Each structure stands twice: as C-alpha cells, then as structure tokens.
Amino acid sequence: MTSKLNNITLIGMPASGKSTVGVLLAKRLGYSFVDVDIVIQEQEGCLLKEIIEKEGQEGFLAVENRINASLNVRHSVIAPGGSVIYGKEAMEHLKEIGTVVYLKLSYESVEERLGDLADRGVVLKDGMTLRDLYEERVPYYEKYADITIDENGLDAGKTVDMLRAIMEERFGLTT
Fold first, then answer.
1. What percent of the chain has a predicted confidence (pLDDT) above 70?
2. By Cβ atoms counted within 10 A, which residue in 2, 18, 118, 119 is the most buried?
3. Which one of 39-43, 107-111, 128-132, 159-163 scores highest in mean pLDDT?
4. Could you report the per-residue pLDDT of 49-80, keeping only the tens digit for each?
5. What are the beta bridge partners of residue 34?
6. Taking residues 149-158, what's their average pLDDT?
7. From CA 106, how far away is CA 13, in angstroms rounded?
8. E strands along the chain, which residues?
9. In what order do the strands lie in the sheet with 147-150?
10. CA-to-CA distance for 103 and 113, rounded, in angstroms?
C-alpha cells in the first residue's frame, strides 16, 4: 500500500459531514478517526471559539495550520476544520500523507445544516456572510481535492458507500 493510501482527509464547508462521514468511513475501512478540531482543543487546552476569542482569527488559523501540518497518523480518516484550506503547509502535508476528499454541498444545504456559526468555531471575517464564506472557500476545496463527492441529496451512509466504492476502484482497497 502506498503512502497516499495511508490516510483519507475529508475537507469541506462546516456542516458538510466531515466528522459524521469520517467516523462511518473509518469503521468501514478499519481505520482510526482523527477529528482535528478535538486535537487542536486538546493541544491548546481550550475550545475553538475560545482560541478565536483569545488569538483572533489569524492566530487561530496559524494554530490550525501548525497542528494539521504536524499530524503524524497512519491508516486514518482525518476530519480537519473547514478553514484548514487557508493553511498552505497544512494542506501540502495532508496531501502528502493521504488522499484529500472534498465533500461538496450546495450553499443552500450548508445554510440549512448549520447552526450557530460562532458556537461551531467558524472563522468569519468582519462583515462576511455565510454566502461570502462559501464562495471564498469553494475554489480552495476544489484546488486541493484529489476526489470530489457531491453530497447533495445524499445522507451520510450513501456518501460513505460512494466514497468507499471510489477508494476501492481507484486504489484497489478491498476492506
């Protein structure tokens, strides 16, 4: 198995199902599951929203970039925060240690699924709307993705089925 197969990183907007799909996919593949937001909270000793309050958005993005760029895991499904795509070193590292999968959702679906943005630790610049954030991030997700899964109309189980089939077809994964 090549190093590209060691890990699968799920990227996408907040509420795109990175954690939900990630846990299910990890179980199906017999992989570990790494929720990078939890790793950040453990390493920093506080909640994401507290890091943003204390360090500001740029400070939070620097912490997120540093922690994602130093992940040292194997045979894992990795679910970083939606803003990981702003960290060049983080994304280069994640692409180096695995396959990056973009869980693509329409703006309407993201809006419908999202609760309180601040409570979720979503990085929004002053005056920026959710639509602005969506339009800013999509080109990054598309740029870094090795595989794109269009989740519109799919539940988490169907997304996992599609992703597993693609991984098996592309890489001969038979788990």
1. 90
2. 18
3. 39-43
4. 899 899 998 999 999 999 999 999 999 999 99
5. 78
6. 89
7. 10
8. 7-11, 32-35, 76-79, 99-104, 147-150
9. 32-35, 76-79, 7-11, 99-104, 147-150
10. 14
Other beta carbons within 10 Å of 161: 15
| Strand, coil or helix: 106 | coil
- On the question of pLDDT at 150 being above 80, the answer is yes
Q: Give 135's contacts (C-beta < 8 A, 6+ positions apart).
A: none
- How open is the CA angle 24-136-34, to the nearest 5 degrees? 25
Report the alpha-carbon distance of residue 17 to residue 172 in Å, rounded. 25
Can you read off the two tokens belonging to residue 165?
């089939």
Closest among 97, 44, 47, 48 to 69, alpha carbons compared: 97
CA atoms of 34 and 12, how far apart (whole Å): 15
Residue 125's pLDDT is what? 77
Residue 39 CA, distance from chain mean position? 13
Residues 61-100 as b or e (16 or more Cβ within 10 Å = b): bebbbebbbebebeebbbbbbbbbbbbeebbebbeebbbb
Q: Based on C-alpha coordinates, what's the Rg of the chain?
A: 15
In one-letter notation, the amino acid at residue 158 is K
Give the amino acid at 135.
E
For residue 88, give both structure tokens.
């060049």
